[in-house]
């Protein structure tokens, strides 16, 4: 389950409005066969990707590799599986979905493939999609629920939040010695990841001083994605509206001296420097840090002591870390 969690965290936020989910398949001796992760809303779920990878490994049939449509993928697996999953176990961070929406039911696929055992971390809080456990139990499959549940719930929490209120996090880039000023700090791969998150979030909040000094565009061009709406958090309303930030198609730009606008959105990223961090640190519970391996000269930003590390991974020479306020 920990391997499934680690894989899922690498896509945290990128699956909005769906949750980040990971899956692992093992054989009867608990040897790992495959990993799977949900990469984007509308694409195959984590369980299906893990099953697809296991199928290719066990059968050497690579024709399935080119199939990306979830319905065609389910159809191919149901037609060609030949009973190879009967003695296998699948670990999933979230209860397999039980309904047909943009993708078919994962619970039904697992049932039809006759998996011996399903190990689940969190229950699905979405009433429309829940019920997978019942479907699997009624089919005779052995179901184990609540494995690493606290960690799986922590992975699921952003999804649970944006179901009813905005999920808001502060993104910041810093050097090895905690400097956040002085131009580009992190590598292109880290900046590309930020653009991928911008493509998914529906509102990006930025401080007025950053807009005036840096004159940013704040789009998602590195992933050829959509640009989010912008809230410029500033007491002063005067800006050079000729800069590119104000001229991105299908984008709304608001200039406000409060954060009430956040209530109208579901997935909100805040970017900025010292002033912005100090202004909003009591209003956000999550912080995403991209930290370079190199040191710089400049003013150091000290993060709060009550930030608990949830997940960390390398991005080339940088390190990405998700934090949440502890208590």
Q: How would you summarize what this structure contains?
A:
By secondary structure, this protein is α/β, with parallel strands linked by helices. 27% of the residues lie in helices and 24% in strands.
Structural write-up:
The chain has 327 residues and is α/β, with parallel strands linked by helices. The chain has 2 domains: 2-160, 3-Layer(aba) Sandwich (Cytidine Deaminase, domain 2), CATH 3.40.140; 167-325, Dihydrofolate Reductase, subunit A, CATH 3.40.430. Helices cover 27% and strands 24% of the residues. It is built from 9 helices and 13 strands. It has helices at residues 2-9, 46-59, 70-80, 106-112, 132-138, 149-162, 188-200, 208-214, 274-280, and strands spanning 22-26, 32-37, 89-94, 117-122, 142-145, 167-174, 203-207, 229-233, 253-256, 267-271, 286-291, 307-315, 318-325. The protein has an 8-stranded mixed β-sheet with strand order 9-8-7-10-6-11-13-12. Strands 2-1-3-4-5 form a 5-stranded mixed β-sheet. Strand 1 (22-26) and strand 2 (32-37) form a beta hairpin. The chain starts with a helix and ends with a strand.
């Amino acid at each position: 389950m920990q391997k499934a969690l680690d894989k899922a965290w690498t896509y945290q936020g990128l699956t909005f409005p769906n949750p980040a989910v990971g899956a692992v398949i093992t054989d009867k001796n608990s040897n790992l066969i495959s990993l799977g992760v949900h990469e984007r809303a509308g694409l195959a779920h984590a369980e299906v990707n893990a099953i697809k990878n296991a199928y290719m490994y066990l059968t050497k049939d690579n024709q399935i590799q080119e199939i990306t449509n979830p319905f065609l993928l389910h159809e191919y697996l149901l037609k060609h599986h030949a009973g190879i999953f009967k003695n296998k176990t699948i670990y999933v961070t979230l209860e397999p979905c039980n309904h047909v929406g943009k993708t078919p039911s994962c619970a039904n696929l697992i049932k039809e493939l006759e998996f011996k055992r399903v190990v689940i971390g969190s229950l699905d809080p979405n009433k429309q999609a829940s019920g997978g456990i019942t479907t699997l139990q009624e089919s005779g499959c052995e179901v184990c629920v609540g494995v690493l549940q606290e960690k799986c719930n922590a992975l699921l929490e952003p999804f649970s939040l944006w179901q009813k209120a905005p999920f808001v996090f502060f993104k910041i880039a810093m050097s090895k010695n905690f400097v956040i000023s002085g131009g580009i700090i992190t590598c292109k791969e880290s900046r590309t990841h930020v653009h991928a998150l911008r493509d998914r979030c529906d509102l990006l909040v930025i401080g007025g001083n950053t807009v005036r000094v840096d004159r940013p565009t704040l789009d998602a061009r590195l992933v050829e994605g959509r640009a989010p709406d912008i809230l410029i958090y500033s007491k002063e309303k005067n800006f050079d509206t000729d800069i590119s930030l104000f001229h991105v198609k299908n984008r709304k730009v608001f200039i406000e001296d409060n954060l009430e606008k956040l209530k109208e959105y579901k997935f909100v990223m805040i970017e900025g420097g010292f002033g912005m961090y100090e202004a909003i640190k009591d209003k956000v519970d999550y912080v995403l840090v991209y930290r370079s391996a190199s040191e710089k000269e400049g003013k150091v930003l000290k993060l709060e002591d009550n930030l608990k590390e949830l997940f960390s991974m390398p991005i080339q020479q940088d390190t990405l870390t998700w934090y949440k306020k502890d208590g």
